Amino acid sequence: MTTPILPNRDVPLFHLSHNDLDGYGAQYMTRAAGFRAHYYNADYRDVPATLERIFEDMARLGEPSQLLITDLNLTVEQSDMVDRRIQGMGGSGTADTSSKPARNGLLSADLAAQLKQSISAEGPKSEVMLLDHHATGEDAAEKHAWYHLDTSRCASRLAFEAIAPYLDEQARALYAARADFIDVGDRWLKQDARFHRSIFLIGLMMEDDQLAPPLNALKREYRFHLMESFFRRMEEGASLEELERAVYDFRKDFLKGRVDDGVYLDRETPLKDKFHKLSAIALPEGSIPMLRIDGYRAGIFFNWPHDVFRGVVMELMENQGKMDMAIRVGGNGRMSLRSNNGVDVGIISGRYFEGGGHPGAAGGVLKDNRLKDVNHALRSISQTVLDRKGQIERL
């Protein structure tokens, strides 16, 4: 079956994809075609919650839109739910149990005709399309016509085919080659000469970006930047060793214009600390939940990477004065506390969290060691302080 074309570039596109190279690669393709896109990324365990957020965002927008899901296979139950929600928006999700014809190659001769037919159809409605290559989605694909399963190529290639008619001839050739490159690593084509380069890019995309967890859009832009930088250098003829050496420059270039020149050019500040400064600048107001514990403002950081927590809270506390202390709490209930001058977190941790340490840095633990999310953590911290006769309020 020929990969279907995304029917309308002028209709808002809500694009959900996996959080690996192929997932970001699929979004890289719709981005290249200039869609009015709202991007979301999720691991499999986060798919239900992310879909719910997308449907809320689509409803809030209040106009016909398109939902595109790539590099994620849905269960039958999940695909049924998506179909119902799209139909509830006046969309075109319908079940289809008919057999599907054999698939053609990367680009077929009738793509332009398909595009013209899609665009000339009656006015746009809320629609859904899923492009995936995982065979585990076969049952859902057999049930729903919008679920396009093709195990012979990765999601980036499928997404490229879906947007190819929107690109000029030069861009089409460029992004076809880039999608094919991603395919080599994602489908583990070890005999291909590009395999080790593709695997290197997969690893690069999975490395810690040193950006704060709430900054999803910035994290995505960072990965788009890495992909673009990598591809350009490779297309200039760089060897894999040269590409590896260039990664520092790729990362530093992302900071240009996003942090002050003094920070960007400072040779005595490690690159990761510059990313932490960028995070502190970019965090929207209210994105860090705040409690007041015994009169002190405490920022709560749920499941943040330790190094990012350390770097960002230093900026937030010492340079921006936005909190008196910071508490990192993991899903297992273990806590790290940091404070600004005048607040002794060693005493606070000993009093409430069965821990202790230094005035500026301490550890602790909550009795609840199966925290599901930040709201669960906030409730557990609040109850712990109240149980020990402390003062606490949500800011």
3D structure, described in words:
The chain is α/β, with parallel strands linked by helices and 395 residues long. It is 46% helix and 14% strand. It has three domains: 13-90 and 125-206, Rossmann fold; 224-280, no CATH class; 289-393, Diaminopimelate Epimerase, Chain A, domain 1. It has a seven-stranded mixed β-sheet with strand order 10-11-9-8-7-6-12, sandwiched between helices. It has a five-stranded parallel β-sheet with strand order 2-1-3-4-5, sandwiched between helices. Helix 1 (21-32) packs parallel to helix 6, helix 6 (155-163) packs antiparallel against helix 7 (169-186) and helix 7 (169-186) crosses helix 8.
Q: Layout of helices and strands, plus pairs?
A:
Elements: E1 13-17, H1 21-32, E2 37-41, H2 47-61, E3 66-70, H3 76-88, H4 111-119, E4 127-132, H5 138-143, E5 147-149, H6 155-163, H7 169-186, H8 195-206, H9 216-235, H10 240-255, H11 261-265, H12 271-282, E6 290-293, E7 296-302, H13 306-319, E8 325-329, E9 334-339, H14 345-352, E10 356-357, E11 361-365, H15 374-387, E12 392-394
Parallel strand pairs: 1-2, 1-3, 3-4, 4-5, 7-8
Antiparallel strand pairs: 6-7, 6-12, 8-9, 9-11, 10-11
